[in-house]
Amino acid sequence: MTQARLASCIPLPLEHKVLVTVIEKAKDWALMHGVGMRDKKHFTKDAIQIAPFVLLPSPFPRTEFNKAIELQPILNELMHKVAHDDDFLEHTLQNTLQVDEFTAKLYEIWVKVKDEGITQPISLGMLRSDIMLESRCPHTENQCAKHTPYCSWKQVEINSIASGFGHLGPSLSLGLFRSDYLLQYPEGNKIKQVEFNTVASSFGAISSNLPDMSRYILRQLGHGDLIKNMPENRALSGLCSGIIEAYDLFGVPSAIVLFVVEEVSYNICDQRFHEFEISEKRPDIMIYRKTLNEIFEETTLNDKKQLLLEGYPVAVVYYRSGYEPAQYPSSKEWDARLRVERSSAVKCPSIHYQLAGTKKVQQALAAPGALEQFVRAELCGRVRDIFTGLYSLDFDESGERAVDMALEDAERFVLKPQREGGGNNLYGADVRAALLRMRRARERAAYVLMERILPPTVAGYVVRPGGAVPPPVTDLVSELGIFGVIIGTRDKIYCNRQAGHMLRTKLADANEGGVAAGLGALDSPYLL
Ligand code: ADP
Ligand code: MG
Ligand code: MG
Fold first, then answer.
1. Which of 47, 282, 459, 491 has its CA 20 to 30 Å from the CA of residue 166?
2. Contact residues for 2 (Cβ-Cβ < 8 A; gap 6+)
């Protein structure tokens, strides 16, 4: 696939001995500052290994970074409003519910607690909007020439090319040969939203340490002058202050905070840092970690609908699990979820927030006129600008059109089910195969179709636990996540702010780059 390139922050490759030495230092820095995870293959609670990381911070255009940061409170509010718009959620999800059992189960809980009467009107959103840089211009050549002097045809370095991008060279539009030209934004790449996470948005804590790690590495390499281009990242304190504010709104002195965790937490550093941070800022707040199964066994609801654990009322429930079907192996986990939802605890997220974070809702918000229902008119353009093509696959005229479009040029799209946690999407030939298989199957409505973003590549080194030292220089692409915290009820917003960022980077030819899923590597932005 043809991709535009960005220059790495220092010239590569590094000399062999320099590289080996700096990687050894960097690994120790990582281990000693919790840039780590538990080993999935040889699990033990007694050791932590390095989390995969990129040796040098990846370049990111400063203006686009700032744009993403400034947009975050607007996106937080958008999701908050969507989560509280019962009609919109109901209407948007109705076809999905027929064919996606997991979403249907969440939905069932939502309907049940609504019917019973919501006990806790306050929700805590700890959100993460994920974005990539799009290197291709969305306009046709004519549009650009006519409306704005926006884009320019540029020769790109790599010559293999995916079939049929609508915006590729003139030769393509004439149906002749594929060209090595890409219609690019002349002033650089533009941010486009990959997805919006409303549940268990992770890596804020570890990512807060990464600028320091990158600074240390740059200094060791004699490039201390460059550290001025690395933005501060206060994701950990920002996210934790959300939990603390929600705790104070609950307002019961003996109350506790409950983290809902997996049976086995591999991403333990990221989770524990939250606990340490809260404990340091607020020694009065005790944090418990429980699985959904343990919540089923060990909690009760009292007559005030307080969720009680070991006799203490739970003020805030923070889900780091519960976002995928495998985390509900039996009806007990679903019962636990319902109990929490019924309770007076402030949930992060409430069930309607989780529904608002589905891919289906993201697709519905990209449809003409949808955003205008939630976002002030003067801000709509800025939000819409970061959306990329998203299409429903429902059984109607537009769904059929989307299927035809994808079958014609599957490389241009990603097929997404209503899942979280990475590794669930389909790409390229698999999009085509799946759509041919599902053409007349109801299952089709469980997916949305999304235009594939083509980010610029940058050369770099990925350091992995047990990986080759030194690793080869490889072509990489990055995904930036901006965290947001919002607390509010249907009618009142108590706080709404941007809360730091994370950057994760993967091999340019890999489809996905989840760090917890073992595909991506932690990174931090180097602003250009
Ligand atoms: P999940 O909720 O499972 O993380 P995502 O929508 O974030 O689902 O998709 C997982 C990964 O797939 C992303 O981190 C990104 O690497 C890749 N991806 C998703 N959508 C796109 C897209 N439109 N263009 C390019 N890559 C994408
Ligand atoms: Mg997600
Ligand atoms: Mg994602």
1. 459
2. 156, 158, 159, 160, 161, 162, 180, 182, 454
Q: Is 128 a catalytic residue?
A: yes
Packing angle of the helix pair 235-250, 268-281 (nearest 10 deg) = 60
The predicted-structure confidence for 479-509, as pLDDT tens digits, reads as follows 999 999 999 999 999 999 999 999 999 999 9
Distance from the alpha carbon of residue 110 to the mean position of ligand 1, in angstroms? 26
Q: What is the pLDDT of residue 4?
A: 86
Q: Is 518 a catalytic residue?
A: no
**Do both 329 and 196 map to the same domain?**
yes
Three-class secondary structure of residue 523 per DSSP: strand
For the segment 79-115, what is each residue's pLDDT rounded down to a tens digit? 999 999 999 999 999 999 999 999 999 999 999 999 9
Q: Which of 168, 184, 200 is the last residue of a domain?
A: 184
Work out the mean pLDDT of the chain and round it to a whole number: 91
Confidence of residue 162 (pLDDT cuts 50, 70, 90): very low
Task: Examine the domain organization and report whether 73 and 198 are in the same domain.
Answer: yes
Q: Which atom of ligand 1 is nearest to the CA of 506?
A: 16
Summarize the confidence of residues 9-15 as an average pLDDT: 97
- Structural domain including 220 reads 16-135+190-388+453-527
Compute the average pLDDT of residues 210-227: 97
Q: How far apart are CA 25 and CA 394, in angstroms?
A: 53
**C-beta of 420 in contact with ligand 1 (< 6 A):** yes
221 & 346 share domain: yes
- Asked whether residue 432 is assigned to any structural domain, the reply reads no
Judged against a pLDDT cut of 60, whether residue 469 lies above it is answered with yes
pTM for this prediction? 0.92
**Residue 141: predicted pLDDT:** 56
What is d(CA 371, CA 78) in angstroms, rounded to the nearest whole number? 8
The tokens of 479 are what? 């995904």
Q: How many domains does the chain have?
A: 2
453 lines ligand 1 (CB under 6 A): yes
Strands of 280-431 (E only): list them: 287-290, 299-301, 307-309, 312-319, 346-348, 390-392, 413-417, 426-427
> Quick one: 385 exposed, middle or buried, by C-beta within 10 A (0-12, 13-18, 19+)?
middle
CA-based Rg of the chain, rounded to a whole angstrom?
Answer: 23
